[in-house]
Amino acid sequence: MSEIHTSVQEYYGKELEKSEDLKTNACCTLTAPPKHIMEALREVHDEVQAKYYGCGLTIPSKVEGLKILDLGSGSGRDCYIAAKLVGEHGEVVGVDMTDEQLAVANKHIEYHREQFGYATSNVRFLKGNIEALDELDLEPGSFDLIISNCVINLAENKEKVLRDAFALLKSGGEMYFSDVYADRRFPVELQKDPVLWGECISGALYWNDFLNIAKRVGFTDPRAVENKVITVENPELEEKLGDINCFSVTYRLFKIDGLESDCEDYGQAVKYKGTIAEEKASFDLDDHHNFPAGKVMPVCGNTYKMLHDTRFKEDFEFYGDWSTHYGIFEGCGGAMPFSVGGEDSAAASCC
Ligand SMILES: C[S@@+](CC[C@H](N)C(=O)[O-])C[C@H]1O[C@@H](n2cnc3c(N)ncnc32)[C@H](O)[C@@H]1O
């Protein structure tokens, strides 16, 4: 067990007892969840909710029947929401390394089984290190969806986490997760600060390092779903941070064969049928792809694949093929994908 792991276990197992004990707002969810998540959340046990330390929304639409893995599941809040949304025939596995967090998660398995009216529970928790997922009893290529909420920043070897996650996903599956990112690399002395690391700040990746790692392990075209500025709300820690800006960002990373490094134009288009229960009027693939029901929309080759080679296939009509290439798809940039004062990054109050 490394020094960082011991310090993180100490922080989440002993130092913090409930969400209000956090010293900054980094591990706080700054966005109100959509209605169907709120409804599921109301059924989650109070003790589980009290120990929630997530920073964003991690459950995408259309999860019924899916097999989901939650990395760093903590007291199990997102696992239990997912357990409700996947239904009795879906399955949820949570992995965490801190005994105290696992104890709370495990304590309420039966409560949620009864609450959801399932004959047998569809959720289980494993003790393990998310930097060694390949050593756990998990079948490669067996998960439809991998979620994680404010955890990967706490890992030392983030590339290993993403590489193992990629291996565990089915083809056409996705990793949909929320974490903290910075607008530059953290100086080593701040990375050694146990409170800044424990609060999910100084372990955060510089956003472009994250994108490069994700692409290197096989998630060729990472898509940001939403982002919020983290305002920290702690004068002493803010002073240590100086000009470094942090963001809570939800990304979706699809495991799809043949995605290209850039958005290429093959003259393709799609039409959303309005059939996804949670997003009938329009479907948001990411923060710059909104598909109103019934409207034919031109898409790049990668977006076409994200809709065609995944669980969303039956919800779209597809036009065109791959026979003619028209060059780069207009509007694909390489700039920082979120901004301190931008429309999408309004800071909000939390916990
Ligand atoms: C900020 S909390 C988030 C917990 C949970 N996702 C939530 O939203 O409440 C971070 C959690 O990740 C776990 N964790 C951190 N690093 C880990 C690692 N390398 N392997 C397994 N769990 C880890 C901690 O034990 C803690 O429960």
UniProtKB/TrEMBL annotation:
Domain Methyltransferase span(s) in chain numbering: 64-217
Enzyme class: transferase
InterPro entries hit by this protein: Arsenite_MeTrfase-like, Methyltranfer_dom, SAM-dependent_MTases_sf
Keyword field: Methyltransferase, S-adenosyl-L-methionine, Transferase
Recorded GO MF terms: arsenite methyltransferase activity
Reaction catalysed by this enzyme: arsenic triglutathione + [thioredoxin]-dithiol + S-adenosyl-L-methionine + 2 H2O = methylarsonous acid + [thioredoxin]-disulfide + 3 glutathione + S-adenosyl-L-homocysteine + H(+); arsenic triglutathione + 2 [thioredoxin]-dithiol + 2 S-adenosyl-L-methionine + H2O = dimethylarsinous acid + 2 [thioredoxin]-disulfide + 3 glutathione + 2 S-adenosyl-L-homocysteine + 2 H(+); arsenic triglutathione + 3 [thioredoxin]-dithiol + 3 S-adenosyl-L-methionine = trimethylarsine + 3 [thioredoxin]-disulfide + 3 glutathione + 3 S-adenosyl-L-homocysteine + 3 H(+)
A biological process from GO: methylation
CDD domains in UniProt: AdoMet_MTases (cd02440)
EC annotation from Swiss-Prot or TrEMBL: 2.1.1.137
Signal peptide: none
Protein family membership: Belongs to the methyltransferase superfamily. Arsenite methyltransferase family.
Matching PANTHER family: ARSENITE METHYLTRANSFERASE
The name this protein goes by in its record: Arsenite methyltransferase
Species: Lishizhenia tianjinensis
